[in-house]
Amino acid sequence: GDGCGHTLLTPHSGTLSSKNYPGTYPNHTACRWRLRAPPGTSLLLAFGDVDLEPSERCARSSLLLADPQAGTAYGPYCRNAGPATPLLMTNSSAVTVLFNSTSHHSGRGLLLSYATSQHPEGIWMGASPDPPLAVCFSVYCPAGCKDIDGDIWGNPSQGYRDTSVLCKAAVHAGVIADELGGQVTLSREKGITLYESAFANGLHSKRWARGDWGPQLHPAPGSCGDALEVAAFNASSWWHEVDALGQDRAWAAERAALGTAGHSWAPEPGSEGAWLELDLGTRRNITGITTKGSSEQYDYYVTSYRVSSSRDGKNWRPYRGSSGQEDKVFEGNADSHGEVSNAFIPPIIARYIR
Q: Is the N or C terminus of the chain more exposed, i.e. has fewer CB atoms within 10 Å?
């Protein structure tokens, strides 16, 4: 329908919102979402925000949930007749969500998420959980948190300020994939005085110069943040630059190691389908990649890239991420100075990476 906003629906969780959320939703729109869970499970719905202009019997704007299996309905809801609790536990594996608006003047609209009964601890979208975090806390983040409203401050190494949108921060940290959602474990620790901004997994966190208590997000069991050693570098080509004095300078593949002083690797100018290959020496569990450009004399950086892996250096498999449908395109750098990280969820098990 023409009233649908951000929507990501998967069999196990998802997030949906009205058009323009959290800005005022349009007049005279309608949207219908059909939520389906696997057979044998039921749907849990979390109302992140229901801010529809108040009216008698919610006539101007309304949210209605229909359970076709049980023949029951929930709502209609609007600002003066909202849900009784923020979490609705249904007995159905299928729910139809109906959102309608007529002429109105105010209202942020609708933000709703869902998960299945396999996650009875409930689901979370917003900022830090209420009540405040205990020493260790676990929540379930639905798919689609990346594009909901709200800011995050910090990065995986420093932690995040306590007002950061929690599930959005979990995507930024590479703890979960936005396309899948998942369980997030965190602890509340003393904050720091300066949270540096970082671009990671398609999200930009903000810089914040004041400390407080803040959440530390913990990666899933089996993942690891240690830097892997590269046994050898190879590339489709590299640039042999001849400077003004006639001296040759090779932008060779081995110069691609992060932190190398001076210039980096660069392919031959004009070459198409360029690739850089890393030999890790043995088969490893690879959980992510960090890239940076080269500001040495030239403003060089890679804006996007694909990843392939191989166990023998001959047969290559493109990385498709958690969706598995098509080759994943990673968002790279926007300048030659900053580092950008992307997580592999699920991880890659291979010796060679391109």
A: N
Is the dihedral angle over the CA atoms 252, 337, 166, 144 positive or is it negative? Answer: negative
pLDDT along the chain (354 residues), means of 10: 90 94 93 94 92 91 90 91 89 94 92 88 65 67 91 86 88 92 83 86 88 66 73 96 87 94 93 95 95 90 97 95 85 94 94 98
Q: To which CATH superfamily is domain 232-353 assigned?
A: Galactose-binding domain-like (2.60.120.260)
**295 secondary structure, DSSP code:** -
Amino acid at 275: W
Domain(s) labelled CATH 2.60.120.290 in the chain stretch across: 4-116
Q: Are 79 and 107 in contact (CB under 8 A)?
A: yes
Read off the amino acid at residue 327.
D
Calculate the alpha carbon distances from 227 to 34, 43, 71 in Å: 43, 40, 55
| Superfamily grouping for domain 135-220 | LCCL-like domain (2.170.130.20)
Work out the angle at residue 239's Cα, subtended by the Cα atoms of residues 235 and 253, and round it to the nearest 5 degrees.
30
CA distances from 306 to 47, 309, 311 (A): 36, 10, 17
**Do the Cβ atoms of 152 and 56 come closer than 8 Å?**
no
**What residue type is assigned to position 110 of the chain?**
L
